Amino acid sequence: MPRPGSAQRWASAVGRWGCRLLALLLLLLLLLVPGPGGASEITFELPDNAKQCFYEDIAQGTKCTLEFQVITGGHYDVDCRLEDPDGKVLYKEMKKQYDSFTFTASKNGTYKFCFSNEFSTFTHKTVYFDFQVGEDPPLFPSENRVSALTQMESACVSIHEALKSVIDYQTHFRLREAQGRSRAEDLNTRVAYCSLGWEVQEHGANIW
Amino acid sequence: MAGFGGGRLPAMGPAALLLFALCTVGTRGLYFHIGETEKRCFIEEIPDETMVIGNYRTQMWDKQKEVFLPSTPGLGMHVEVKDPDGKVVLSRQYGSEGRFTFTSHTPGDHQICLHSNSTRMALFAGGKLRVHLNIQVGEHANNYPEIAAKDKLTELQLRARQLLDQVEQIQKEQDYQRYREERFRLTSESTNQRVLWWSIAQTVILILTGIWQMRHLKSFFEAKKLV
């Protein structure tokens, strides 16, 4: 028959180990359960000779897509570089106008992608990027239901996906149009100044 | 975060790691680093009557521990939003964690600028700040579970509502496209007009200069008694 003192010690030891195991289990669950995912769509201005980096923590096995496009500035090109947590370069392109890169995260950690305008001396660029990590979060938190979706619900899901791609195409169209429009506006101001300059230069010399 | 399975855990290990994991779960999202006085601006090209919600979270770099602190009270961020005409729509100071919302009333490029306005400058001097940022535009800004709870919608009704919101966003974007195309056309026509007037003016001035030169030379030769 164990003495009361040792029973108490034994109970407290069991309690401690129980708490540790529970904490460990919860931690493992949090690490293993993939995150809700999502997309980040950002347009920012990249000054000349500058480099800007963005980071995201991604779980292993998540399928990610990085898409970028240069909207205004110079020759509409930028350097892009994507690195995994160990610093290994997954994607590296110089002077690209538009590109899309899909990869599956091979390990957990912080992935880093950078846009560089260091090759340009005086033009600053406006860059748009869309970084999609995993799938979009489901509409209902309890999406892992026992029953399958009804026909109506699955029709709604396919319409939703189709509309998402319509919105995506609209965004790309808008970016291309913004490129064309910025060139047209540049041309407009240049024609105004250049024509005045030409007149003064030519006929000034003539008269003199 | 990964790779601790195996080996002996200290007494506080699991609890601390759990806390760390919870923190990282909460901070999932894109982040970037900014310096002390640096201002970062982002551009959102949106149609009118579109709601934009931005969420940010800041973490300060601790030079001694060489790690980003999970949360730092006393850190502030100043958020400024300008509409396409340059008018300030929103200019407010938020804490180390904040959420800002605005609705556009004119279509076009809205500029969202963030810069830190720390009250603990001594600690922050020469340091860097990690900013987690998430900007949701239009129908992405809608919180569907909240809408379902508020309007008491069934699943199917909620899905239909989501589809309606998406279609509304597509319509707004198409209206904006029409407005942009009109601007583009006006710019191109203005360039066309300018080039046309430039070439006409050039021709007229050339002819006039030519006439003037001939007259001047003629009177010059007559004066020199060569003609």
UniProtKB/TrEMBL annotation, chain A:
It is a single-pass type I membrane protein. It comes from the Eukaryota. Coiled coil: none annotated. Its main location: endoplasmic reticulum. This is Transmembrane emp24 domain-containing protein 7 isoform X2. Residues 51-133 form the GOLD domain. Residues 1-39 form the signal peptide. The keyword Membrane applies. Keywords: Endoplasmic reticulum, Membrane, Protein transport, Signal, Transmembrane, Transmembrane helix, Transport. It is found in: Endoplasmic reticulum membrane; Endoplasmic reticulum-Golgi intermediate compartment membrane; Golgi apparatus, cis-Golgi network membrane; Membrane. Belongs to the EMP24/GP25L family. InterPro entries: Emp24-like, GOLD_dom, GOLD_dom_sf.
TrEMBL record, chain B:
Residues 39-137 form the GOLD domain. It is a single-pass type I membrane protein. Residues 1-29 form the signal peptide. It is found in: Endoplasmic reticulum membrane; Membrane. The keyword Acyltransferase does not apply. InterPro entries: Emp24-like, GOLD_dom. SMART domains: EMP24_GP25L. Keywords: Endoplasmic reticulum, Membrane, Signal, Transmembrane, Transmembrane helix. The chain crosses the membrane at residues 195-214. Belongs to the EMP24/GP25L family. PANTHER family: TRANSMEMBRANE EMP24 DOMAIN-CONTAINING PROTEIN. This is Transmembrane emp24 domain-containing protein 4. It comes from Galeopterus variegatus.
